[in-house]
Amino acid sequence: VIRDVELETGHVIEEKTITVAGVVECGNGDCESGETARSCPADCALPDEATGRSGVSDRRPTVPAVAGGGSQGQKSTTWTTEAWLHNPGAVAAMFVAEITASDDTAPSQAGPFTIEPGQTLFWSDVARDVFGSSGHGALSVDSNQPVLLRTRTSDSKAGYKATRRSGAVGQELAGIPERLTLAHGDGALYLLGLEQGAGHASWLHLHEVDGSSLSVEIGIFNNRGQRVRRVAFEYPSGSATSLAMTQLGLRRGSAYATVEVVGGDGRLAVSGSVVDLRTGDRITVPALHESRTRSSKAGEIHQLVAVLLHRKGQFAARWRSGLAIVNPTDISQTVRLVYEGEFSRGGGRGVVRETVLTVGPKQQLVWNDVLPQLFRMRHRAGSQGSLHLFHSGDLLVDSRVRNLRRHGGAVGSNLPALGAGDMIGAGDTGLIIGLAHTPATRTSLGLSEFSGLPTDVRVALYATGGAPNLLGIREFSVQAFAHLGIDNLFGVFGLDENPNQPIVAKVTILRGGSVCPYAMTIDKKSGDPTMQLAARK
Known about the structure:
- This protein is mainly beta.
- Strands 21, 22, 23, 24, 25, 26, 27 and 28 form an 8-stranded antiparallel β-sheet that branches.
- The chain is globular, with a radius of gyration of 22 Å.
């Protein structure tokens, strides 16, 4: 803690908390600055078979792409970033927030602030509200206790009038924990399902988080696994940058990218975006590391995509799910995919479809509407359910939920595949932070069972703007391997129409197996969904 003190009175003028890196000592049980989950798993590893894609509490989370103060984008769009910071611990946390403008290595810092146990701090425009700034950049938090950070960057102004009347479109970005940032020797991060052409544009977002320069190498691969472009450059310490895929050599088509730190002492947080140029919506592309798909025990690896959709919905929605699979290895990999359609309200089992695929070396397989394209379901048939993937080698999997718009284009959200260690099982607590009960949105809850056992789940909603206030508790039963969708979550809990945020959903297992809980919040006017996965406490 650094304090500026007035000498005559002894009054504290300013106080800030900073993290001071000591001697890095891998194996001492502490995840110190300079260590990552890959360079020092003894100190920084996630739970066995966990990917970290569902969100992880951390002392130093970062979001590589935020916007604030009404920063301007294409077609008169105006972008702002909402942010939620939640303290899942039993004691108060003190933190400092930091924002780094794009291509500026001199960050702005604010704090220290205190956040009480179970409390959520919410900012409707974090750059303006906390830092009094505007523009694009990266947001970081430095806390003395693990916290959960979530953001949504959206455009709610007059852009793209031809494809939507009003409402907001945007992308969800959870805080990347420092231990999952990329350092020299950590291998490569993969960003799947990039699209470039007349209808889409893709971006990569980078932020150096450790205050040291580094050397970066980016590879662009076509779906056949051929590297079509390699870009190497020196990256300054503390920088925050967004790179268009056109700058990296992708002019048209579908591709995936790899990012690797090949030198230097810095650490890089990475994410991506795919922009629908007809609606202006952005879908997050998470950076996946191949090592996070590996099983901690011999045998078959099991990954879960919590929900696939091909059906109509409220507010003239036409839901579709896309899927991307990349084989990062030099040998072919076989994967078995099992789609478990949702049980009927009468308890009857939904449709079950299964197929086996071979993914060639470095190959990417992509489906924009996976249920009819891969599982041969009739286009007019409506269905939703979960997807289970079983394989023995390294495979990276990502999915997207899209809502097709009447005038062309789509709005959507990302939903990555998760491993066994990401699930909420006996003894675990899952938290979905940053829910909002507002007239402009509608929120649903989804529960997908992973272990093959009927499972009873308790869901509690809390208002967390101050001391946690219980809003209600409900219990649900999920069949083995099945998906359960709970529409109109706040109506099911009997909440009145009074707006309320921030709200946290706390998920616990009463008996049975393990589940992946998620929330989907839909903007009623634009139709844009936001997917929020439950983070393990």
